[in-house]
Amino acid sequence: MPDTYAANAREVIGKKVNILRNDGIIPANIYGRGIDSVPVQIEWSEARGMLNSHGRNVLIQIQIEGETQARSVVIRDFTRDPVNGSLQHIDFFQVDLTRKIQADIPVQLTGESSAVHTYGGILVQSLELLHVEALPTEMPESIQVSVESLEELESSLTVGDIQAPEGVSILTSPDVGLAQIARPRVEQEADELQEGEDTEDVTPSDDSEVEEEAE
After folding, report:
1. Which positions ≥6 away from 3 have C-beta within 8 Å?
2. CATH 2.40.240.10 spans which residues of the chain?
């Protein structure tokens, strides 16, 4: 059962919402396919608990005072003050539990690569978010991918190597790189130095030219 959070209908709009923020109330909006946007407001403590417990696109319920049924929503976005980091606004997307939605969810690398310990390799994650599709009730908060199969330097994982959770379809191209084991920096610098020496132009000195002419 999704967690339920309380909200109130909001009449204050525009720049006047700063009055709400000063009183510890966070303005928010609920929108969705086929419905009008609904302005609401949430107590700061309620909003903080919500964001601490759930990431974007995770199914929750918003119970608006005066409505008989809670709304099934996901957190689509939220904004913070660029100076002090305080929460400014939350956008909710109201979902139909019978229809799939698309979302970008985080990729979390788990486990340890033996190439890191054995050869001093550097684990580099090249993809942070996956574009996926699932029913709201089956949308994961993140997808975990083990790196234990990366046993050699320059070994890598692509999106095609990910085992998607049941009910989840990965829409990101399977050829997109996910993670790789890079060579140690010292080894990289040595290779670059060697390549520079191998490709360095050798220009004969003036003395050698004179000697050739003399012959």
Report:
1. 50, 53, 54, 60, 61
2. 4-94
Length of the chain: 215
**Token duo for residue 77:** 């976005």
| CA–CA distance, 9 with 91 (Å, rounded to integer) | 14
What confidence tens digit (pLDDT) does each residue in 76-135 have? 999 999 999 999 999 999 999 999 999 999 999 999 999 998 999 999 999 999 999 999
CB 43 within 8 A of CB 25: yes
- What percentage of the chain's residues is helix, strand, coil (to nearest 5)? 25, 40, 35
Beta carbons of 123 and 181 less than 8 angstroms apart: yes
Domain 4-94 has what CATH class? mainly beta
Degrees, nearest 5: CA angle 147-177-79:
90
Q: Which fold has domain 101-198?
A: RNA Polymerase Alpha Subunit; Chain A, domain 2 (2.170.120)
